[in-house]
Structure formats: structure tokens, C-alpha cells
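In response to reviewer comment 3 from the previous cycle, which asked for concrete evidence that the modeling workflow produces usable outputs, we include below a single protein chain processed end to end. The sequence was submitted unchanged, and the resulting C-alpha cells are shown without manual editing.
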Amino acid sequence: MKNFLSKPVNTFLVLFISLLLTFFLLPINIFDGEIVYQQGIQKIVEKRPLSLYFISGLEYDKAQLVGVKEYYLLPKGYFMAFLFIFCIPLLVAFRVSLGKKNSAKS
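The workflow returned the following C-alpha cells.
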């Protein structure tokens, strides 16, 4: 396994897929979003952290959605998701490639 992860592309793919699955399968509320509640003619917009699990529609309990008209991520939430899911694995893969170059020079 150590030899497999010593290649930057493999490291990127493993981290990318594991983070993607983690954020889409576990309800981790860290991404900025809004929930719009509709009760009769009253409309309430609440800014709060949402999870990609909730946004993807994988929630199992529909009782949580009573009175909810819509929910979505804000641009900051999309940016945070991009950073966590794509940029962190890219940074780690870059670090692996630098470590590989440094060990080859020695």
C-alpha cells in the first residue's frame, strides 16, 4: 500500500474519493447554506451550515423537511466544498511528488 500511495496520482485519487464519500454519506454540517421555510404566506430564510449529505437529497428522515421550501449552498459553501474535496487532495499529492523528487536527488 505504501508503494501504491507513493505515486501522486494514486494519492490524489484515494484522498479525493474518500473525502467525496465522507462528505456525501455523512451528515457533517460545515458548508455555508440557506434554508427557506414556508408557513402559509410567511417566508423565513435561515443562514446555517449544511452538509453535502443533506444537499444531495440522501437524507432518510423526511420529517426534517416539514415546512422547508428549499435549501441550497451559498457561494462560500460551494467554495469550501471545492477546497475540501479537490484542493486538499491536490496539495497532498503535490507534497508526495516533492518528497519523491527530494528522495531521488539524495
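The chain has a mean pLDDT of 88. We consider this sufficient to address the reviewer's concern, and the full set will be provided in the supplementary archive.
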